[in-house]
């Protein structure tokens, strides 16, 4: 029988809620640690555990049919995938932040600054949309320390509570994007896989409805 292949985050902020959502959909998966993949016992579903950054590519290539990943990652990676459902967890925003001592009133204040971020594609689009010229410095982690060490004047990073910014003497000045975990799917699914996806989606929507 044909199986639906789903990619979820191997470890990190979305892992537990992704597994929990599948459980709430009545899907039993034995989640062995350090396993690359596993199968559901009561639904034709194969589960791949991957780094979130790799998930859009796997879906575009059809190695996975669907996946659970932050919308921020889908947009940054610019892969051809369909966002089929917002999942209501992993909520955050991608925001511009500057040192709290900097005078900031409008987005024009970002003109000619150096902005550190792990999201160069999304930040570039934001700057273009607002007609701002600035220098983007791509760094992969600990973006919030960049202004303090003189590497950048501003940062653009994910924020949820805001405490990381606060602890680093930064203030949030622009929301670039609001994000949450989404179910993304391959553009060209086989008819059998589309039927399985519809079945899974129906259950996900029922779970979401029950929570409201
Ligand atoms: O190992 P892998 O590559 O799979 O994981 P990762 O380390 O790249 O990602 P991970 O697990 O940190 O985040 C996965 C996804 O969770 C992100 O892509 C977002 O869609 C979502 N998410 C939700 C967040 C946050 N909230 C969040 N607060 N991702 C990161 N953060 C970080 C942020 O970068 C900053 O360092 O948390 C810090 C800020 O948190 P506050 O609460 O202090 O504001
Ligand atoms: Zn990642």
TrEMBL record:
Describe the function of this protein. Catalyzes the condensation of ATP and 5-phosphoribose 1-diphosphate to form N'-(5'-phosphoribosyl)-ATP (PR-ATP). Has a crucial role in the pathway because the rate of histidine biosynthesis seems to be controlled primarily by regulation of HisG enzymatic activity.
- Report the protein name in the record: ATP phosphoribosyltransferase
Task: Name the reaction it catalyses.
Answer: 1-(5-phospho-beta-D-ribosyl)-ATP + diphosphate = 5-phospho-alpha-D-ribose 1-diphosphate + ATP
Q: What class of enzyme is it?
A: transferase
GO terms for biological process, alphabetical = L-histidine biosynthetic process
Summarize the activity regulation: Feedback inhibited by histidine.
* Cofactor(s) in the UniProt record: Mg(2+)
Localization? Cytoplasm
Task: Give the source's domain of life in one word.
Answer: Bacteria
E.C. numbers: 2.4.2.17
């Amino acid at each position: 029988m044909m199986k639906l292949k789903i990619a979820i985050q191997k470890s990190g902020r979305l892992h537990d809620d992704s597994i929990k959502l599948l459980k709430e959909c009545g899907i039993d998966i034995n989640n062995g640690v350090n396993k690359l993949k596993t199968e559901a016992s009561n639904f034709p579903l194969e589960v791949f555990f991957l780094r979130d950054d790799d998930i859009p590519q796997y879906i575009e290539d059809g190695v996975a049919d669907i996946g659970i990943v932050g919308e921020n990652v889908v947009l940054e990676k610019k892969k051809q995938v369909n966002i089929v459902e917002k999942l209501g967890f992993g909520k955050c925003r991608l925001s511009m932040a500057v040192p709290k001592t900097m005078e900031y009133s409008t987005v024009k204040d970002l003109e000619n600054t150096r902005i550190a971020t792990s999201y160069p594609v999304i930040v570039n689009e934001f700057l273009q949309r607002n007609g701002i010229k600035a220098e983007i410095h791509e760094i992969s982690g600990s973006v919030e320390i960049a202004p303090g060490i003189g590497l950048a004047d501003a940062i653009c990073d994910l924020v949820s509570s805001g405490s990381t910014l606060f602890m680093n003497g930064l203030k949030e000045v622009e929301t670039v994007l609001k994000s949450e975990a989404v179910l993304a799917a391959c553009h060209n699914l086989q008819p059998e896989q589309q039927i399985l996806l519809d079945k899974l989606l129906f259950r996900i929507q029922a779970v979401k409805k029950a929570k409201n």
